[in-house]
């Protein structure tokens, strides 16, 4: 067949017919080039234009933004489905709607699969699923992160149960890879029904506003069953999942920013659970004093301040990546560096609900602690907590069960753990926030610390209730007893005198103390009891 005929008709094997026996190797190479060009270009320019018109990039454009330039190596680009019926036998595009392969991010290997919405709406069929299964198996075997770029319409209805089985294979591999390699899901389009469970099984979920949605049942079903009218974004958009449900860890306005942040996150994670996170030493001295901390945190335990400002002052160059920034704002979880080494930071946030622990904050911090422990990231805990949030809703919602998740996560963590009590640490919340009694390797406190069963006011009301009630001047007696309780049990050296705090430190020395402590703990090794797995509270 002449070259111009190939060019006119494209490289689809169904149209070209089998290669002729007399073709030379050069002609076969030319045919291969045309076939691969067709696979790379996708179904048609019109389909690409339609994707761009929605404010969305194509699968390959997304991969180019994610990995280092020229580093992507595609796997099975010529795979096609073998299904018949419902018109599928006449539609057999290359890739079958998913691009799979590996590349590098800042020189380190990363495996990727990206749904191509232009082909069958990115819907998953047997061949599509087989490609994803293969790249997931390769990522696990190679010990490298896996990033999924999700933009698909769910299971391919025309292929029936084999499509559902394909999702089952993905879920099984997500679970097998959990805690072994970092798994990152990037939502760049719709994700409905059972397909939403794969992102939920991964370590991090990124979403893009207006173009990505996740839900189990769509707006039409919700309206039919409940009568409630809701848009796709109102039901499962990026802002909903970032601020209300907690499903999304990060939400951004555009795909370019989103994928740049995925690259940044990958720079803070190890390739697998057998490695340490990459070191990136900068110019910020490890022993830099933090004199401004004295002014950032008020002496009065009732006054609010922004814990993020404290974190900025302590970490390298003030840079950190906050996880779940808009969900459960009463606790801050962030990845940062101290003297070039990655650390996970868990900190109460007095600006939101006075920094109390509630159901959502406990879940958020527990999952973060588990992630850090799985991937050898030391944990720094900054404590300023008045207790658990009281209330009927919290109790009926299972605050005991959910609070225990955070307790379990800390108790189970074997990575280096250092905590600093900035101001108050009351009751069970003090214990849960990585106190020495549950295994913190080192515990420090500022001179403003108040570690106690409860605040002095509440304690005095309980202990001296009868005396206060019988007094001629109840308020004067109450204030006197509050003062006594503080002086006896809540002075800053009470915990240190009993070995529950390793040292009381000058706030300005916090960065230096943390850095030196983590250097000492870098070689920490701790074994858990032999068991199949624990049974954490759910």
From TrEMBL:
Signal peptide: none annotated. Coiled coil: none annotated. Residues 285-520 form the CoA carboxyltransferase C-terminal domain. The keyword Transferase applies. PROSITE patterns: COA_CT_CTER, COA_CT_NTER. GO terms for cellular component: acetyl-CoA carboxylase complex. GO terms for molecular function: propionyl-CoA carboxylase activity; transferase activity. Keywords: Transferase. Pfam families: Carboxyl_trans. Residues 1-16 have a biased composition (Basic and acidic residues). Residues 1-28, 275-299 are annotated as: Disordered. The keyword Transferase applies. Residues 22-281 form the CoA carboxyltransferase N-terminal domain. InterPro entries: AccD/PCCB (IPR051047), AcCoA_carboxyl_beta (IPR034733), ClpP/crotonase-like_dom_sf (IPR029045), COA_CT_C (IPR011763), COA_CT_N (IPR011762). This is Methylmalonyl-CoA carboxyltransferase.
């Amino acid at each position: 067949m002449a070259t111009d005929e190939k060019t006119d008709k494209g490289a689809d094997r169904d149209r070209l017919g089998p290669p002729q026996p007399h073709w030379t190797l050069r002609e076969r190479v030319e045919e291969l080039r045309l076939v691969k060009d067709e696979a790379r270009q996708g179904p048609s320019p019109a389909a690409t234009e339609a994707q761009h018109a929605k404010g969305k990039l194509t699968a390959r454009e997304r991969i180019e933004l994610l990995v280092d330039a020229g580093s992507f190596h595609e796997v099975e680009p010529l795979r096609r489905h073998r299904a018949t019926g419902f018109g599928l036998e006449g539609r057999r595009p290359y890739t079958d709607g998913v691009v799979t392969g590996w590349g590098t991010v800042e020189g380190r290997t990363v495996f990727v699969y990206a749904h191509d919405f232009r082909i069958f709406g990115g819907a998953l069929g047997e061949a599509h699923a087989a490609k994803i299964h293969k790249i997931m198996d390769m990522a696990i075997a190679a010990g490298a992160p896996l990033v999924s770029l999700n933009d698909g319409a769910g299971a391919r209805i025309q292929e029936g149960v084999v499509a559902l089985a394909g999702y089952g294979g993905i879920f099984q591999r997500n679970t097998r890879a959990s805690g072994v390699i970092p798994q990152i899901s990037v939502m760049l389009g719709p994700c409905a029904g059972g397909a939403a469970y794969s992102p939920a099984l991964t370590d991090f979920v990124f979403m893009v506003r207006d173009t990505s949605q996740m839900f189990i049942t769509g707006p039409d079903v919700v309206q039919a069953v409940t009568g409630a009218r809701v848009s796709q974004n109102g039901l499962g958009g990026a802002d909903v999942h970032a601020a209300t449900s907690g499903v999304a860890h990060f939400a951004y306005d555009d795909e370019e920013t989103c994928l740049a942040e995925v690259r940044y996150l990958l720079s803070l994670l190890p390739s697998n659970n057998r490695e340490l996170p990459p070191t990136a030493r900068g110019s910020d001295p490890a022993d830099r004093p933090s004199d401004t901390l004295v002014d950032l945190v008020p002496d009065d335990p009732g006054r609010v301040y922004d814990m993020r400002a404290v974190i900025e002052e302590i970490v390298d160059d003030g840079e950190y990546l906050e996880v779940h920034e808009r969900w459960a704002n009463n606790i801050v979880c962030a990845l940062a560096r101290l003297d070039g080494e990655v650390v996970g930071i868990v900190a109460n946030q007095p600006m939101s609900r006075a920094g109390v622990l509630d159901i959502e904050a406990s879940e958020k911090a527990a999952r973060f602690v588990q992630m850090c422990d799985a991937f050898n990231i030391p944990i720094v805990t900054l404590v300023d907590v008045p207790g658990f949030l009281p209330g009927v809703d919290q109790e009926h919602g299972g605050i005991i069960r959910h609070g225990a998740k955070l307790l379990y996560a800390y108790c189970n963590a074997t990575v280096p753990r250092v905590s600093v009590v900035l101001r108050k640490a009351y009751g069970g919340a003090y214990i849960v926030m990585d106190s020495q009694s549950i295994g913190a390797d080192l515990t420090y406190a500022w001179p403003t610390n108040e570690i106690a069963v409860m605040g002095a006011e509440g304690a005095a009301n309980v202990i001296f209730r009868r005396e206060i009630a019988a007094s001629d001047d109840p308020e004067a007696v109450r204030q006197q007893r509050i003062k006594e309780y503080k002086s006896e049990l809540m002075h800053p050296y009470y915990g240190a005198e009993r070995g529950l705090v390793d040292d009381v430190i000058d706030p300005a020395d916090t960065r230096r103390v943390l850095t030196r402590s983590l250097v000492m703990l870098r070689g920490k090794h701790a074994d858990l009891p032999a068991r199949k797995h624990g049974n954490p509270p759910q």
